[in-house]
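Thread amino acids onto this structure.
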């Protein structure tokens, strides 16, 4: 069972009560076993990971004493008690009504415009209010598809186009297309410093976890560090004295790929404080927008090509940043 379905099942078990106390006595077959394994055997309707969370937060008793160590060994006759509470994880995959800007939809998929500030998928620190929660509320059938049909993600503060599957068949086909690099994604980025050299650059630089900061990604040497190959094509559309406007074409889809590659070549994105950028032009988030998405329809085989308008904040930042650019020009797909 995948994490989404398990979380849904755990949440359903806790729907009728905020908490429930279970008491059990360790039988001889479980003598000497780990506490979490014993609870998983004796309370089988809940996932082991869910039970581990409850133990670690102090909801388990062994002979009346709180035990927070999941690997603690229990003995025959020990009296165990656990208070079953709805954790943030167990409540993460639930419908939450929210406005979703649907650009296109049919019975197989949707193309949506994600605003900046919206987290795509539940994770620590953002267990609710995500796009996934909104998709579950928008379409009850989304619960039948892993991750509510999400096949690729945008960072929280990146705006733009995403495709979401509505059926398992469409999802599997879209995942295959992405893996085969057959889904074309282009972004608009505003970056620091005046561009130098050719107006088009290809960046082929592997990306992995930053060894000095686990919250960041970084360009890595695969002969010494773990990571994955990453490739981006960059085309300059306009530039001012202290910044530039760049169209970024992804050939791979690594975490923070454009942000890392732009910082790597000395042009961190405006507003991207994580990778060396600074606020400018009124931008309070990284100046990155997924403006074009093209792929072959996974069921009908039709060519699908979508483009979206500039976000208001990036449009408004052009003049303050000294970027002389006609929004109606230069947006043609490469």
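Threaded sequence (334 positions):
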């Amino acid at each position: 069972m995948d994490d989404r379905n398990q979380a849904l099942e755990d949440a359903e078990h806790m729907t009728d009560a905020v908490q429930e106390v279970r008491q059990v006595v360790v039988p001889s077959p479980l003598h000497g076993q780990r506490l979490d394994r014993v609870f998983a055997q004796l309370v089988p309707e809940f996932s082991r990971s869910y039970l581990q969370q409850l133990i670690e937060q102090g909801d388990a008793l062994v002979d009346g004493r709180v035990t927070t160590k999941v690997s603690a060994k229990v003995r025959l006759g020990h009296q165990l008690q656990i208070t079953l509470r709805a954790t943030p994880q167990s409540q993460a995959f639930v419908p939450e009504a929210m406005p979703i800007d649907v650009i296109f939809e049919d019975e197989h998929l949707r193309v949506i415009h994600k605003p900046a500030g919206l987290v795509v998928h539940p994770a620590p620190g953002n267990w609710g209010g995500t796009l996934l929660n909104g998709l579950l509320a928008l379409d009850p059938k989304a619960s039948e598809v892993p991750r509510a049909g999400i096949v690729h993600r945008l960072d929280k503060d990146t705006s733009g186009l995403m495709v979401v599957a509505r059926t398992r068949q469409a999802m599997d086909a879209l995942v295959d297309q992405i893996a085969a690099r057959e889904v074309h994604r282009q972004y608009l980025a505003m970056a620091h410093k005046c561009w130098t050299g050719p107006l088009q650059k290809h960046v082929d630089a592997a990306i992995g976890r930053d060894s000095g900061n686990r919250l960041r990604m970084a360009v890595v040497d695969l002969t010494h560090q773990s990571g994955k190959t990453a490739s981006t094509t960059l085309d300059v559309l306009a530039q001012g004295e202290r910044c530039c406007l760049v169209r970024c074409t992804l050939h791979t889809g690594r975490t923070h790929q454009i942000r890392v590659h732009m910082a790597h070549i000395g042009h961190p994105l405006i507003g991207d404080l994580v990778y060396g950028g600074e606020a400018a032009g009124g931008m309070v988030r990284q100046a990155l927008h997924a403006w074009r998405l093209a792929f072959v329809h996974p069921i009908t085989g039709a060519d699908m090509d979508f483009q979206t308008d500039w976000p208001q904040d990036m449009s408004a930042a052009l003049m303050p940043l000294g970027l002389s650019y006609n929004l109606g020009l230069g947006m043609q797909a490469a």
